[in-house]
Specification:
Radius of gyration of chain A: 25 Å
Strand order of the largest sheet of chain A: 1-2-7
Order of helices and strands of chain A: HHHEEEHHEEEEHHHHH
Shape of chain A: globular
CATH topology of the largest domain in chain B: D-Maltodextrin-Binding Protein, domain 2
Strand order of the largest sheet of chain B: 10-9-11-8-12
Mean pLDDT of chain B: 87
Low-confidence stretches of chain A: none
CATH architecture of the largest domain in chain B: 3-Layer(aba) Sandwich
CATH topology of the domain at 11-103 and 215-346 in chain A: MetI-like fold
CATH class of the domain at 11-103 and 215-346 in chain A: Mainly Alpha
Number of domains of chain B: 3
Number of helices of chain A: 10
Structural class of chain B: alpha/beta
Low-confidence stretches of chain B: 32-36
Radius of gyration of chain B: 25 Å
Number of strands of chain A: 7
Strand content of chain B: 15-25%
Helix content of chain A: 55-70%
Helix content of chain B: 40-55%
Number of strands of chain B: 14
Oligomer: heterodimer
Chain lengths: 351, 358
């Protein structure tokens, strides 16, 4: 490296970055350091991965169960969806959703409001924002609700083990989640108002929206492409899991008088999950790593902001690529550890 | 006992080695005085290029006028011509070039990691790039500046009309990103930067209406405007917000190679200054002007200093042409920037001025 006149060191991380990023979860502009630019990219990667994982899981479960449906139409539709989306390269799908969406979405001035306050335009999805007073008290009330729900569940289980009486945990939980926050509004001084996006003229032909929250089209199309693609694989995992539970189990459960819902909840799902979780973990890891394709469509993720712009401006290729690789490694390992813990939790406990 | 024996043996070996090195040194000293192609021996890049039989040149992924491949895979452009000139000088054939298309992000790493030997890819010469990351800029083959393109029906006639919330599409990892921030900051305008890795995607996104303005070097704007669905609906604003001297880059540490690339470019510009072109180069050998005669290799021993033969510059002019020919062929005749502006010779009101080849 010395031969080629390249110096090595991580000192550049504290230097001023002097570039801007279009979308960031934390405050960022060019006067912040390269390290903060790294955090911006990392948080954006985590954001799109989390959104992608949530939607991929929901779509995957629905489609996976639909593939086992007795209804011919539902079954075939689900199969066509799976075969179509899992067999086209992801990068092409990202391009398709991004550029197709850009072509199809209206310009800001032509956008029809949804429910009067949502505006889906070529420049992004503009949604109303909540403006909070005493947000912290509201959050404390939510935390209090969650903690009490956990205690009630433990108590309910003990009671069932002792007397065999089931407590309606679900309705109590929902009630708590509603009542405590409402109390915080009434007595805690919590107050919220809604800020609706307002159209703003930039030039004779150019418009945008001001106020509210703006979700850039890059985030929307990337999350969409990632979830639709990964959901096909999760759907297959779910199908494999449910089919892996032998028929005799269901029949035995039904014969001791469990309702169909109880059969699914108490007999089929616990066994199916054991088959579903390990391959689904792989899909979560894939989705997180695939999110690095964001650079192709200008979504400011870790690769675009840090291994892209920051690398270019500093020329520190070895340092930046090594940090980026380590970051993806840590992200993947964290997901992996969490999923392994969950897998162990639901595994058969031999006593 | 055993160790002593080895020590003794080692000492004898060392003695032989010492004699051998002094012999080599003597021979080397002798050669320095006797051969003139010592430059070739000193330059690893030159030696490797001659061994391989082609010049490894990094170019853009497609910027009309600068480096662009046609359907048959033939590269043309003023940046391409710099590499062709080096190939003509070093290998005797302007076509012996292997072009590697690189994104803005890849370009410097490709050069420092020895994938290419010349980076001729509309790259801005800045202090930090020159001094910090193992690169050396050898000259300027295009004086450019950053500008803004907007839709005609927006009514913008100047950058001073820009308003808060404007979104600007541009390329990732370029000086453009930094200039843009400096510009909007100094004007106190809040803006949304949308950065893509490839120029084609920037064009597509701007064309679709994702951005209100497209900003990059003005030559780039002129070239990319042709790719838009209706080029006439767009206009480049008059203001230039930065200095962008674009030029070829080589790896740091091979000064002979650096000189070859620098002077290949300089010869093209000087040839235009003295009116030498691809058509009349041979007949200029009998010119009365010694400067012209030196350019076509009829006088002096300029090639030897670079480790080349004396016809190197003649080959550049005959095979690639002078700078004016290259500009006309690639940029003016294609309708990108018919007006040469600052890229005119200093004798004709531009700022192209190169040190004399003598």
């Amino acid at each position: 490296m010395e031969n080629r006149g390249i110096t090595f060191g991580y000192g550049f991380l504290s230097q001023e970055s002097s570039f801007d990023v279009q979308f960031s979860l934390i405050e960022f502009d060019g006067s912040h350091s390269y390290f903060r630019a790294y955090l911006v990219g990392l948080l954006n990667t985590i954001l799109v991965s989390v959104i992608g994982i949530i939607f991929a899981t929901i779509i995957g479960i629905v489609v996976g169960i639909a593939r086992l449906s007795n209804n011919y139409l539902i079954k075939r539709t689900a199969a066509v969806y799976v075969e179509f989306f899992r067999n086209i390269p992801l990068l092409l799908q990202i391009f398709f959703w991004y550029f197709a969406a850009l072509r199809a979405l209206p310009l800001p001035q032509d956008a029809e409001p949804m429910f009067g306050v949502f505006f889906l335009t070529i420049k992004g999805f503009f949604v109303p924002a909540f403006v909070w007073n005493n947000l912290d008290i509201f959050i404390y009330s939510l935390i209090a609700a969650v903690i009490s729900i956990i205690f009630i569940r433990i108590y309910a289980r003990k009671k069932q083990e002792k007397d065999g009486v089931q407590t309606p945990v679900l309705s109590i939980s929902i009630g708590l989640l509603l009542i405590l926050p409402i109390l915080s509004f009434l007595f805690g001084g919590v107050d919220t108002s809604i800020e609706v996006p307002v159209i703003k003229q930039l030039s004779q032909s150019g418009f945008t929206y001001e106020g509210g929250i703006k979700l850039p089209p890059e985030l929307i199309s990337l999350a969409l492409a990632l979830s639709l693609y990964t959901a096909t694989f999760i759907a297959e995992c779910v199908r494999a899991g449910v089919q892996g539970v032998s028929k005799g189990q269901k029949e035995a459960a039904a014969s001791i008088g469990l309702t169909p819902n109880q059969v699914l909840k108490l007999v089929v799902m616990p066994q199916a999950l054991r088959i579903i979780i390990p391959p689904t973990t792989n899909q979560y890891l894939n989705l997180t790593k695939n999110s690095s394709l964001a650079a192709a469509i200008a979504y400011p993720d870790l690769v675009l902001v840090f291994a892209g712009t920051a690398l270019m401006q500093t020329g520190r290729a070895i340092e930046i690529v090594s940090i980026t690789m380590l970051t993806y490694l840590s992200l993947s390992i964290s997901i992996s550890i969490f999923m392994n813990w969950y897998n162990k939790k639901i595994a058969i406990k031999e006593k | 006992m055993l160790t002593n024996k080895y020590k003794q043996k080692g000492r004898i070996m060392f003695k032989y080695l010492k004699q051998l090195t002094s012999l080599v040194a003597m021979v080397a000293v002798l050669f320095t005085f006797t051969t003139e192609t010592m430059a070739a021996k000193k330059s690893k890049t030159l030696k490797n290029t001659q061994k391989k039989g082609f010049v490894r040149c990094g170019v853009s992924q497609g910027l009309p006028g600068f480096s662009n491949a046609d359907a048959a895979g033939n590269w043309t452009g003023v940046d391409v011509d710099v590499c062709r000139a080096v190939a003509a000088a070093v290998l005797g054939d302007a076509n012996k070039v292997k072009f590697t298309p690189l994104s803005a992000k890849e370009r410097f790493t490709a050069l420092t990691s020895n994938e290419i030997d010349i980076l001729s890819r509309n790259t801005t010469w800045t202090l930090s790039r020159d001094a910090d990351i193992g690169l050396t800029f050898v000259g300027v083959n295009f004086y450019d500046g950053q500008g803004f393109m907007v839709r005609k029906n927006s009514g913008y006639s100047s950058v001073n009309d820009f308003k808060n919330g404007i979104s600007a599409c541009t390329n990732l990892g370029t000086t453009t990103e930094l200039n843009m921030r400096d510009f909007f900051n100094s004007k106190g305008i809040s803006y949304e930067p949308v950065t893509f890795e490839k120029a084609d995607e920037v064009v597509a996104a701007y064309d679709a209406g994702r951005c209100d303005t497209y900003t990059t070097d003005k030559s780039g704007l002129a070239a990319q405007r042709i790719k838009l669905s209706s080029p006439d609906d767009h206009v480049v604003l008059p203001e230039t917000i930065s200095k962008e001297p674009l030029g070829p880059v080589v790896r740091q540490g091979d000064s002979v190679w650096e000189d070859i690339v620098r002077w290949s470019l300089n010869v093209m510009i000087e040839a235009e200054e003295y009116g030498v072109n691809s058509a009349n180069a041979d007949s200029m050998k009998t010119s009365d002007n010694p400067a012209v005669k030196r350019l076509v290799g009829a006088e002096g021993e300029l090639g030897a200093a670079l480790g080349l033969d004396n016809d190197w510059s003649l080959r550049i002019i005959k095979q690639v042409g002078n700078y004016g020919e290259s500009y006309k062929r690639n940029i003016a005749d294609t309708g990108i920037l018919p007006d040469r502006g600052p890229n005119e010779l200093w004798t004709k009101g531009g700022i192209l001025y190169v040190p004399p080849a003598r």
